[in-house]
From TrEMBL:
This is Cell division protein FtsK. One of its GO terms (cellular component) is plasma membrane. It is a multi-pass membrane protein. Keywords: ATP-binding, Cell cycle, Cell division, Cell membrane, Chromosome partition, DNA-binding, Membrane, Nucleotide-binding, Transmembrane, Transmembrane helix. It is found in: Cell membrane. The chain crosses the membrane at residues 33-53, 87-111, 123-141, 161-182. ATP binds at residues 481-488.
Length: 819
C-alpha cells in the first residue's frame, strides 16, 4: 500500500515536471521571451544613447544607487546609467551597441523559430567584432577613451607591449580580412572573376556598338528585304514588262542585331525551419485518482502536408535551370560572321531577255502564254507561266528537256505544275548570283524569334525568305551532293545555327568525320557541346570501329532514355524535361535533364562500305525510334547510290537535302524525284520534307567563321568533361551462360549488389543503373541466375532474388572461390 502511494507520488511529480517543461517550451512562453529580448534591446539602445550625453554627470550617481535623493540624468534612470557604464565605460565602448543588435536578433530569431545554433553563432561573431572594434578604437587619444571602453584600451595597451603599435595594426588588419573571408566567403577568386566579367562586358559593349554602326551603315544600302513578293515582277506578255514594285525599294533582310547572351538568375536555396507544433496537454485533475496512477503520454499530432513535395520544391527553389552550371555562358555574337553585299541586283535586260527566250521557245512548241511573272531569288529567278486556255500541262511536262535545251542555260529546272498553283515554273539561274550569308540567316527575325526546339537556318528561298526548319520535327536529315557542291558548308550551317540558339546544357553533338578534316574545328568546344564515349581521347570520331561502338552506345542511351520516359509517364523528351524542370522527377531515382543529341555523320558512303550492316543496323534502329527521346541524325554523303542510301535508311529519313548531283538517278535516290541534277552548285539545293521540293540557296559559312565561333565558345568556362555516353562493350566482351567465375562480366559484383538492394531481378534495372545495353544486362542476369543469385525467368514478372543481403552474397562468393 505504502509502495503504491510512493509510486503515485512519483508519477504526479513526473507529470508536474513534464507540464513545467511543456510550459517553458510552449509558444506563449517563447513569444514572451522574444518580446522581452526586443524590448530589452530598445531599453539598452535608449540608455546607451543617453549615456553618451550624460555620462560625466551621472558618474557620481553610480555609487549611490539606492539613495533616492540622487537622480541620474540618463533617460532610463539609474538602471540605465549603471548598465551603460558597465557595457560602455567598463566594457567595449561604442562597440557595445552590437549587444543591442544581437538582442534584437535573438528576439526576432525566437519569433521566427530559427534554429538555436544560428543564434549562438551570431552571438559569437558579435563578441569577436566587439573586441576587435574596441581594441582598434583603443588607438584613439585618451580624450576619446569612452569610444573604446576599458576593455579596448587595456587589451590594446597590453598587446602593444608585446608586438608594438605597428604589429598590432597589422594583426588587426589581418583579423579583419580573415573575418571577411570566413564570414562572407570573400575570396580573391571572386575578385578576379569579377574583373574578367567586367572586361568581357566592356568588350561586348564595344562590339555591339560596332555592330550597330555597321547595321546603320547597311541601312543606307538599297535592297535586302525579306519580302516574299517584293522581288516579283509581272510581265505583260504583249507589252513591255511591268514591275509590281521597283527593285530599288527592296530593303535588307537583317533586322535585329541585339546581343543574345542570356542571363540566368541563380537558384537561391532556402533553409526550411521545421514546424514544431507542441500543444500543451491539459490534464484533467479527475483523471488522477488516488490509488491508480495514470501516466498520460503526450499524443503527437500527425503532420499534414498542405502541398506535395514537387510544389514545395518549386516554391522554394523555383524551376530547375539546366543552364545554371554555365550560367555565364555567352552565345556567339553576330559579328563573328562575315557580312556580304546581299542586295539582289538583277539586270532588267537579263530579265527581259530570259522572258523573251521563254516565250519564243514555248511558241515554237505551240504553247501560248497568257501571263508571265518573275520572282528574283538570290541565285535563280523563277518565271511563273500561265499558259493559254486549253493547253495541257502534261504537254509542257513532256517538252521539259527540249525547253531546257532551247533556253541553253545550266541549272534550268521546270516545275510543271507548281504544286497548289496550277502554273508552270521555270527556274533560270541569275548571271550574278548573290551569296546568302550565315550572318543574314542567323540575324533574321524568323530565326531569332523561332520557338522551335532545334531551329536551323538553312538559307533563303526563291522569294528571299530565310528558311528555318526544326530538326526536332524532321526528325532526321539525309544530305547528299556531289563533291564540291556545298555539303560541308551545309553541315556547318546546321551546326552554326544550333550553336547560336542552344545553350551547351540543351544540345550535344556526336560528330563522325571519317574524312578527318571537315569537323576538326569543333574539337575546341568539346567540353561545351560534344558527347563522347567514356575513356576515349578524341571527341570527334574518325575511326570506323569507334563509330560502331558510338552508334551502339547511342542505342543504349536511347533505351535508357526510354526507361526514364516510361518511369516519368511522359511521351517525349520535351514533356520529360518540362516535368523535370518543374521538379516533379526525383534525381535520386536516376532522373536528370536530358539534352538533345545530334549525331552528324559527314561521309556516310565511306562508313557503309567498310562496316556495312554493323553501321546500318544501329543507324536504322536510332532513326526508327530515337525521335521521341531527342536523338536526331544528320547523315551526309557524296555518293547517293542505292547501296549507300539503302531502303531501310531512306525509309527512316523523311527529310532530305540534295545539293547538285551528277545524274538523274542519284537525284531520284536521294529525293525520289529528278531535279538535283539540274542545280547549279555552290550551295544551291533542294529540300524535301516528304512531298514538296523547295529550292533553297544554302547560307554560306566559311571555315574562318566557324573557327571564330568555336574559339569564342571554347574560350569560355566549360563543363569538366564532354557529355558521357554510356559504355558499350562489343560482343567480344560477352560470356557464356555457365557458372564460370573467370568468364564473368566485370560488372557482375556490382550488378548483384544492385539486384539485392532492390530485391528485384530485372535486366532493365541493370540497364538503367549501370547504363548498359540490353544485351549486356541480359547476359549479367543470366550469370546471376547461374550463380544462384536470381531465380529463373518467369515471363512478364521480374525474377525472384534468392539472396537477401550483402553478407549472404559475400558468403556465396567466398564459397565459390574456395570450391
Ligand atoms: N552556300 C554557299 N554559297 C556560296 N558558295 C558556296 C556555298 N556552299 C559552298 N560554296 C562553295 O563551294 C565550295 C565547296 O563547298 P563544300 O566544301 O561545302 O563542298 P562539299 O560538297 O563538302 O565537297 P566535298 O564533299 O569534296 O567536301 C566552297 O568552298 C564554296 O566556295
Amino acid at each position: 500500500m505504502a509502495k503504491e502511494k510512493t509510486n503515485t507520488q512519483k508519477t504526479v511529480a513526473n507529470t508536474e515536471k513534464k507540464s513545467v517543461f511543456a510550459f517553458l517550451k510552449s509558444r506563449q512562453t517563447t513569444t514572451m521571451l522574444a518580446i522581452f529580448f526586443i524590448l530589452f534591446a530598445v531599453f539598452l539602445i535608449s540608455s546607451f544613447i543617453s549615456f553618451f550625453f550624460n555620462w560625466q554627470e551621472d558618474q557620481s550617481t553610480l555609487q549611490q544607487f539606492f539613495n533616492r535623493e540622487v537622480i541620474a540624468k540618463n533617460l532610463l534612470g539609474k538602471v540605465g546609467a549603471n548598465l551603460s557604464h558597465f557595457f560602455i565605460y567598463k566594457g567595449f565602448g561604442i562597440a557595445a551597441f552590437i549587444i543591442t543588435y544581437k538582442l534584437l536578433y535573438t528576439g526576432y530569431a525566437i519569433l521566427l523559430k530559427k534554429p538555436f545554433s544560428k543564434v549562438i553563432i551570431s552571438w559569437n561573431w558579435g563578441l569577436i567584432s566587439m573586441i576587435w572594434i574596441s581594441v582598434t578604437l583603443g588607438f584613439l587619444p585618451d580624450d576619446f577613451a569612452i569610444l573604446s571602453g576599458v576593455v579596448g584600451v587595456e587589451i590594446n595597451e597590453y598587446l602593444q607591449t608585446f608586438i608594438g603599435k605597428t604589429g598590432l595594426i597589422i594583426a588587426l588588419i589581418f583579423l579583419f580580412i580573415s573575418y571577411l573571408i570566413v564570414r562572407y566567403k570573400v575570396t580573391f577568386d571572386d575578385y578576379i572573376e569579377n574583373l574578367k566579367i567586367k572586361r568581357e562586358e566592356r568588350r561586348l559593349q564595344k562590339e555591339a556598338a560596332l555592330e550597330k554602326q555597321a547595321f546603320e551603315a547597311s541601312l543606307q544600302e538599297p535592297i535586302k528585304e525579306e519580302a516574299p513578293v517584293s522581288n516579283t515582277i509581272i510581265f505583260d506578255n504583249k507589252e513591255k514588262s511591268t514591275f509590281e514594285r521597283p527593285l530599288e525599294n527592296l530593303k535588307p533582310t537583317i533586322s535585329s542585331f541585339s546581343d543574345f547572351s542570356k542571363k540566368h538568375v541563380a537558384d537561391i536555396p532556402v533553409t526550411l525551419d521545421e514546424d514544431e507544433t507542441e500543444d500543451d496537454v491539459n490534464i484533467e485533475p479527475s483523471l488522477i485518482s488516488n490509488d491508480v496512477a495514470i501516466d498520460i503520454e503526450k499524443v503527437e499530432e500527425e503532420e499534414h502536408e498542405v502541398e506535395n513535395l514537387s510544389d514545395k520544391l518549386l516554391k522554394d527553389f523555383g524551376e530547375f535551370d539546366p543552364t545554371l552550371e554555365l550560367s555565364n555562358f555567352r552565345f556567339p555574337t553576330f559579328n563573328l560572321l562575315r557580312q556580304y553585299n546581299e542586295s539582289i541586283s538583277i539586270d532588267p535586260d537579263e530579265l527581259e531577255a530570259n522572258k523573251n527566250n521563254i516565250v519564243e521557245t514555248l511558241k515554237n512548241y505551240g504553247i501560248g502564254i497568257s501571263e508571265i511573272k518573275a520572282t528574283v531569288g538570290p541565285t535563280i529567278t523563277l518565271y511563273e507561266i500561265v499558259p493559254d486556255a486549253g493547253i495541257r500541262i502534261s504537254k509542257i511536262k513532256n517538252l521539259e528537256d527540249d525547253i531546257a535545251l532551247s533556253l541553253a542555260a545550266l541549272g534550268i529546272r521546270i516545275i510543271a505544275p507548281i504544286p497548289g498553283k496550277g502554273t508552270i515554273g521555270i527556274e533560270v539561274p541569275n548571271k550574278r548570283p548573290t551569296v546568302v550569308s550565315m550572318h543574314s540567316a542567323i540575324s533574321s527575325k524568323k530565326f531569332q524569334e523561332s520557338q522551335m526546339e532545334l531551329p536551323i537556318a538553312l538559307g533563303k528561298t526563291i522569294s528571299n525568305e530565310t528558311f528555318v526548319v526544326d530538326l526536332a520535327k524532321m526528325p532526321h536529315l539525309l544530305m547528299a551532293g556531289a563533291t564540291g557542291q556545298g555539303k560541308s558548308v551545309g553541315l556547318n550551317a546546321v551546326l552554326t545555327s544550333l550553336l547560336y540558339k542552344k545553350h551547351p546544357a540543351e544540345v550535344k553533338f556526336v560528330l563522325v568525320d571519317p574524312k578527318k578534316v571537315e569537323l576538326t574545328l569543333f574539337n575546341k568546344i568539346e567540353r561545351h557541346y560534344l558527347a563522347k564515349l567514356p575513356d576515349t581521347e578524341e571527341a570527334i570520331i574518325t575511326d570506323t570501329h569507334k563509330v560502331i561502338n558510338t552508334l551502339n552506345s547511342l542505342c543504349i542511351e536511347m533505351d535508357n532514355r526510354y526507361d526514364l520516359l516510361k518511369a516519368a509517364m511522359v511521351r517525349n523528351i520535351k514533356e520529360y524535361n518540362e516535368k523535370f524542370k518543374k521538379r516533379k522527377l526525383n534525381p535520386n531515382e536516376g532522373h536528370q535533364f536530358l539534352p538533345y543529341i545530334v549525331l552528324v555523320i559527314d561521309e556516310f558512303a565511306d562508313l557503309i562500305m567498310t562496316a556495312g550492316k554493323e553501321v546500318e543496323t544501329p543507324i536504322a534502329r536510332l532513326a526508327q525510334l530515337a525521335r521521341a527521346i531527342g536523338i536526331h541524325l544528320i547523315v551526309a554523303t557524296q555518293r547517293p547510290s542505292v547501296n549507300v542510301i539503302t531502303g531501310i535508311i531512306k525509309a527512316n529519313f523523311p527529310s532530305r537535302i540534295a545539293f547538285r548531283v551528277t545524274s538523274k538517278i542519284d537525284s531520284r535516290t536521294i529525293l525520289d524525284a529528278p531535279g538535283a541534277d539540274q542545280l547549279i552548285g555552290r550551295g544551291d539545293m533542294l529540300y524535301s520534307a516528304g512531298n514538296e521540293l523547295i529550292r533553297i540557296q544554302c547560307a554560306f559559312v566559311d571555315t574562318p567563321e566557324v573557327e571564330k565561333i568555336t574559339d569564342y565558345i571554347g574560350s569560355q568556362k566549360a563543363y569538366a568533361q564532354a557529355y558521357q555516353l554510356p559504355e558499350f562493350i562489343g560482343e567480344e566482351g560477352g560470356t557464356t551462360l555457365d557458372n564460370n567465375i573467370e568468364d564473368r562480366d566485370k560488372l557482375f559484383r556490382e550488378a548483384a549488389e544492385i539486384i539485392i538492394t532492390a530485391q528485384q531481378g530485372s535486366a532493365s534495372l541493370l540497364q538503367r543503373k549501370l547504363k548498359l545495353g540490353y544485351n549486356r544486362a541480359g547476359r549479367l542476369i543470366d550469370q546471376l541466375e547461374a550463380a544462384g543469385i536470381v531465380g529463373p525467368f518467369e515471363g512478364s514478372k521480374a525474377r525472384q532474388v534468392l539472396i537477401s543481403d550483402f553478407t549472404s552474397l559475400e558468403q556465396l562468393l567466398e564459397n565459390e572461390r574456395n570450391e
